[in-house]
């Protein structure tokens, strides 16, 4: 490559457009980035012309009906895999085998075996592969990780992580691919718990052992119209929901600490209620995505009657200084994807992974698979 990285995106719904925006903005925030992203091709088989209009608006040079043509395209160096879960493995493996770098949204595969196939293809091809674990890029989360690693809150005793949402709370919402295992692989586990598992393992330590309960609260939904999203109304016959709406888990971490995880896609009143609390022998830290730029810290106090103080992320935390000039000038969700894009570009240039990688996706997928086994067999499972 000579000064640019040429991009193809497979799947151009919301997340595909997030990737396009992020790549388009890299040089605005990182003017010294070693490569300039160029939007070359998009592939999506949406049944209407919304995708075509969107692709034209972003300035893609080619619109392709078949992803096979994109992953082998001579003018593409990097493939973003942002379509439904059931195409991730096939697209990612084919792209790696064609010598393309990858940016794969989670879950990378429908299970750990599919994700391992992507890892093997990436390693065999010698390409770089990023995964969309964007919450670890939050400057306040980077500060929390540094505080935990520094020992400022002492030895970690227990962690609580919650990822609650309402996007499937409507019982009249359509039976889209997300509710069918052959397409999604799992329910809230792959969609939200994969994020939660990565956040725990990034901020604290790897998960070693767990026990899980799962529930499906809305057991049937009406069939979706062609191209309908999971939040749009169903219109056809009733069909079975094949995967979980809700998960709770106890886990043990490699550092000897304990934890609790809870996640739901049907939690009425909750929108993007994502967060982590880490309690140590001398203090605690707490982060909530809804107040993304804030970190609540209880530290440097006595053991009794301690209290939290709010610390605001500033230019010294993570990548905030590339987006805002001072403390408590918040960044947003799309900015986290710009950070991901910049780190992937650095990985491509240096040949060394920076940021969340396909190996992190595999680590999270193994947690999800262990949770399924634990729930089905009603027992603790070791990873």
Class per helix and strand makeup: alpha/beta
Query: What is the number of helices?
Result: 10
Radius of gyration: 21 Å
What proportion strand? 15-25%
The main β sheet shows up as: 9 strands, mixed
Order of helices and strands: EHEHEHEHEHEHEHHEEEEEEEEEHHE
Query: How many strand segments?
Result: 17
Could you please describe the fold and organization of this structure?
This protein has 383 residues and is α/β, with parallel strands linked by helices. 33% of the residues lie in helices and 24% in strands. The strands form 3 sheets. It has a 9-stranded mixed beta sheet with strand order 16-15-14-13-7-12-11-8-17. The longest helix has 20 residues, at 358-377. It starts with a strand and ends with a strand.
Give a quick rundown of the structure:
The chain is of the alpha/beta class and 383 residues long. Helices cover 33% and strands 24% of the residues.
Task: Output the keywords.
alpha/beta, 9-stranded mixed sheet, 10 helices, 17 strands, 33% helix, 24% strand, globular
Summarize the SSE layout with pairings:
Layout: E1 4-10, H1 14-29, E2 36-43, H2 50-58, E3 62-64, H3 67-71, E4 78-81, H4 85-97, E5 101-104, H5 112-125, E6 129-131, H6 139-150, E7 156-164, H7 181-184, H8 188-203, E8 207-215, E9 220-222, E10 238-240, E11 246-253, E12 258-264, E13 273-280, E14 284-288, E15 294-298, E16 309-312, H9 333-350, H10 358-377, E17 381-382
Parallel strand pairs: 1-2, 1-4, 2-3, 4-5, 5-6, 7-12
Antiparallel strand pairs: 7-13, 8-11, 8-17, 9-10, 11-12, 13-14, 14-15, 15-16
């Amino acid at each position: 490559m000579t000064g640019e990285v040429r991009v193809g995106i497979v799947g151009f719904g919301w997340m595909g457009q997030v990737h396009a925006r992020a790549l388009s903005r890299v040089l605005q925030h990182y003017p010294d980035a070693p490569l300039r992203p160029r939007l070359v091709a998009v592939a999506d088989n949406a049944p209407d012309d919304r995708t075509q209009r969107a692709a034209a608006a972003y300035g893609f040079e080619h619109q392709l009906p078949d992803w096979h043509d994109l992953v082998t395209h001579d003018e593409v160096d990097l493939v973003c895999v942002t379509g439904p879960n059931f195409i991730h493995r096939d697209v990612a493996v084919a792209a790696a085998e064609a010598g393309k770098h990858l940016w794969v949204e989670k879950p990378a595969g429908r299970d750990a075996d599919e994700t391992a196939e992507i890892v093997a293809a990436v390693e065999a091809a010698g390409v770089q592969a990023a995964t969309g674990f964007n919450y670890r890029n939050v400057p306040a989360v980077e500060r929390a990780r540094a505080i935990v690693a520094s020992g400022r809150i002492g030895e970690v005793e227990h962690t609580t992580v919650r990822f609650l949402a309402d996007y499937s709370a409507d019982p009249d919402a359509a039976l889209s691919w997300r509710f069918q295992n052959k397409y999604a692989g799992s329910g809230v586990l792959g969609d939200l718990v994969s994020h939660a598992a990565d956040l725990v393992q990034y901020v604290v330590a790897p998960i070693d052992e767990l026990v899980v309960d799962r529930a499906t609260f809305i057991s049937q939904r009406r069939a979706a119209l062609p191209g309908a999203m999971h939040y749009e109304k169903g219109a056809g016959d009733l069909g079975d929901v094949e995967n979980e709406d809700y998960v709770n888990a106890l886990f043990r971490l490699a550092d000897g600490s304990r934890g609790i995880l809870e996640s739901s896609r049907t939690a009425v009143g909750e929108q993007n209620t994502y967060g982590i609390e880490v309690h140590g022998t001398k203090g605690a830290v707490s982060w909530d995505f809804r107040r993304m730029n804030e970190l609540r810290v209880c530290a440097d106090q006595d053991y009794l009657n301690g209290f939290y103080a709010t610390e605001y992320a500033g230019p010294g935390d993570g990548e905030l200084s590339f987006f805002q000039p001072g403390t408590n000038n918040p960044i947003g969700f799309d900015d986290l994807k710009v950070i991901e894009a910049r780190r992937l570009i650095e990985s491509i240039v240096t040949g060394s992974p920076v940021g969340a990688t396909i190996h992190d996706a595999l680590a999270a997928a193994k947690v999800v698979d262990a949770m399924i086994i634990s729930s089905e067999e009603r027992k603790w499972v070791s990873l």
